[in-house]
Amino acid sequence: MDKRTSMKIGLFCVLLGACSAVKIINLKVPSTYLLDQTSKTPDPLILDCEYEVDENEKGFVLKWLLDGQPVYQWIPSKNPFPFQSFKNRVDTSYVVSQEHLHKHRAMAIIKPLANFTGEYSCIVQTYASIDRRAAKLKIIVRESKFDLSYYSNGDGEVTVDCQARDISPLPELQIRINNELFETENLKSVQGENGLYNASISGTLRKDQLESPAQIECLLTIPETNYNKRRSTTYYDPDTPIAGPGNVTDTTELYATESNSATSLPKLTSFSIFVTIGLVSSRFFSR
Asked: Are the C-beta atoms of residues 74 and 81 closer than 8 Å to each other?
């Protein structure tokens, strides 16, 4: 059967679903992948495509596409072939199964890039049949810094700032005071040449509108993912006497829900950093 005829048959199968000799039964593409740029050996990003195929089928080919563009191809009689955009980014020695027609069906991406976000499609076809399935993946680059601070303007006002640096995709930031949403300016962001974002929000209110002590939080989220973090601190009015020996405890909490596995459930991790300081430094309340 020539190539043109096989393409016609494949197209017929896609349009009418009339052929079933090859069929995808499970597509394993994680919805998110957390990229830790500080790690020298990050976990590989594994995309797997499980299918059923008749051993008597001829001309079997498996392809992975990103946003419609081919990035990986495997023909059982040949070695896996990553296309130019994924060259040196795929472990072609990775084996997911010892079965002849399944050995290199999975694509193991090593050191993924932030721009590998998109819709991944797995296509399996033979001379007589074809099947296709797709899923979206978002690459998350963990921020290098996430800060929350406040200071007095010297005219009876207090400004609260929250910022995240070197993160992708662009996050959403939200400030809350005593669990109430704090009205801030619109999110300000700058994208660097490396594709990462610096983002910040800030807001100002009169000091007499702010209880002392007051819990201030900044929430960071990445839309359409389970990635979220929280930074918190406690505001104290410098003109209000502090009970006890005169020490203030500033508590910063950070929560993240993240997973790099296509098969494991998301894992919740949390940690807290407690910093005990002496009398509140005047730099937070005057300039």
From this structure: yes
| Separation between Cα atoms, residue 277 and residue 234, nearest integer Å | 12
Tokens 């100002």 correspond to: 204
pTM of the entire structure? 0.70
Proportion of the chain in helix, strand, coil states, percent, rounded to 5: 10, 50, 45
* List of E strands, 3-83: 22-28, 32-35, 45-53, 61-66, 69-74, 81-82
Helix (H) or strand (E) holding 197: strand 197-206
pLDDT in tens, 93-152: 999 999 999 999 999 999 898 899 999 999 999 999 999 999 999 999 999 999 999 998
Say if strands 130-141 and 32-35 run parallel, antiparallel, or are unpaired.
parallel
Give the residues across from 231 on adjacent strands. 218
